[in-house]
Amino acid sequence: MQTEEIYRDLLERITDGFIALDKNWNYTYVNRRVGELVHRSPESMIGKNVWEEFPDVVGTPTYEAFQKAMKEQRYVSNLDYYPPLDLWQENHIYPSPEGISVFIRDITDQKKAEQARKQSEETRRLIMNSALDAIVCVNKQNRITVWNRQAENIFGWKEEEALGKTLVETIIPEKYREQHLKGFKRYQETGEGPLLNKLIEITALNKQGEEFPVELAIVVVKQGQDDFYCAFIRDITERKQADEKIKSSYEQLRQLASHLQVVREQERTSIAREIHDELGQQLTGLKIDISWIKKRVSDEDAAIIKKIDEVLDLLDITIKTVRKIASELRPSILDDIGIVEALEWQSKEFERRSGIKTYFSSELEGLQLPENISTTFFRIFQESLTNVARHAQASSIHASFVKKDGKLILEISDNGQGMELSEMKNKKTLGLLGMKERTQMIGGEFKINSKPGQGTKVSISIPSSLAGSM
């Protein structure tokens, strides 16, 4: 009896369930753990038939295992799921001629964890295979461990072909291979890598050996004691082609705009000369003729003499107007003398008309520039002065035209009210855009700086090499 009590105590203290069945499949012993698993009192089960108590078990792998162990009189084990109790069990069945003893281990948590892990892996795989980007991962040995469906599509290597290979063997162009191996080794030694966690554009290689542009981001993934490296790669061939088309279209538009500017200046020059030479000469001739008539009119014809004087005064005004129009269309001084003298003349004209004190300085007198460059400087200078008159509320302007640090620089500064550059950019004013485009057409750089209450400064510069002999 004492030995039996010891065994019972042991069976009650173990973490596994334990049952004993006689050869008629009736319970002879049920420990407390089994009662917890089936939600019944162990005492209430004694003497009852296991298949009557749990009819759903009949025909299951557990039923077959019990029958086999009893029939063959040998140890049998099995794993089974019992849906009514949501129970995964691992059964160890020990037979004897008088019945069987069964140790039942609850492995529900373990199986659910396995199922969750499998489901997570399947979900991860579905996500990776649904990703728009190629996902390629390598281990510390630089061997490919992950190669998703988009990687197959982009590079042409099937997953089974790519796994186990190195990136050098698959997708890295020859010109980058040494750099890649050095960078990989440096990270292994220092934990630092210049390309990690950055979005970069580079070229990659497909299975056919063709290079194409990609966008690439590399991240380090830590898993336990091991690191592995994942690259998210996007084929940007179409985007690059679209960018090139846009750039080409933009360049064509810029060339067209440049051509139109040249044509416009040529037309202005032609019209200015026609007005100055033809119309000016005709008006001057008309004035001479009227003056000749005046000399032959009798002094007694006071009314006629008065009218002639009025006509002569009107002719003087008309001649000045014609000269002014011709000058505004294309100042002859720009072509006859040079850009510096034209800028100085424009400064004085602007001061005379606007009343804004304008200071111009330059030590480049007599400078001769290619026509398109001198025209650009002059027109931007005109536009800048016009902007000051319209918007700046300035009382003075300082302008300079100098050669400095290998550049030819024209600067125009005013002491006006200034403005917020961000607001100015949002407005996208045509005048400023026009000045910027004009500058870029001659290979120059356009800058503007301004702050509220601190005036505005416009700067146009070109490399001296573009200005010809200076």
Mind sketching the topology for me?
Blueprint: H1 2-13, E1 17-22, E2 27-30, H2 32-38, H3 42-45, H4 50-53, H5 61-72, E3 76-82, E4 87-96, E5 99-106, H6 108-130, E6 134-138, E7 144-147, H7 149-155, H8 159-162, H9 167-170, H10 174-190, E8 199-205, E9 211-223, E10 226-235, H11 237-295, H12 302-329, H13 332-336, H14 339-354, E11 357-362, H15 371-392, E12 396-404, E13 407-414, H16 421-427, H17 430-441, E14 445-450, E15 456-463
Parallel strand pairs: 11-12
Antiparallel strand pairs: 1-2, 1-5, 3-4, 4-5, 6-7, 6-10, 8-9, 9-10, 12-13, 13-15, 14-15
Helix pairs in contact: 11-12, 14-15, 15-17
What would CATH call the class of the largest domain?
Alpha Beta
Whole-number average pLDDT?
A: 85
Range of helix content: 40-55%
Number of DSSP strand runs: 15
Strand line-up in the sheet with most strands = 2-1-5-4-3
Coarse structural class: alpha+beta
The stretches of 5 or more residues where confidence is low (pLDDT under 50) are none
Report on the biggest sheet.
5 strands, antiparallel
Q: What is the fold-level CATH name, i.e. the topology of the largest domain? A: Heat Shock Protein 90
Which band does the percent of strand residues land in? 15-25%
Task: Characterize this entry briefly.
The protein is an alpha+beta fold. The chain contains 17 helices and 15 strands. The chain has four domains: 2-111, Beta-Lactamase (2-Layer Sandwich); 131-235, PAS domain (Beta-Lactamase), CATH 3.30.450.20; 244-330; 338-467, Histidine kinase-like ATPase, C-terminal domain (Heat Shock Protein 90, 2-Layer Sandwich).
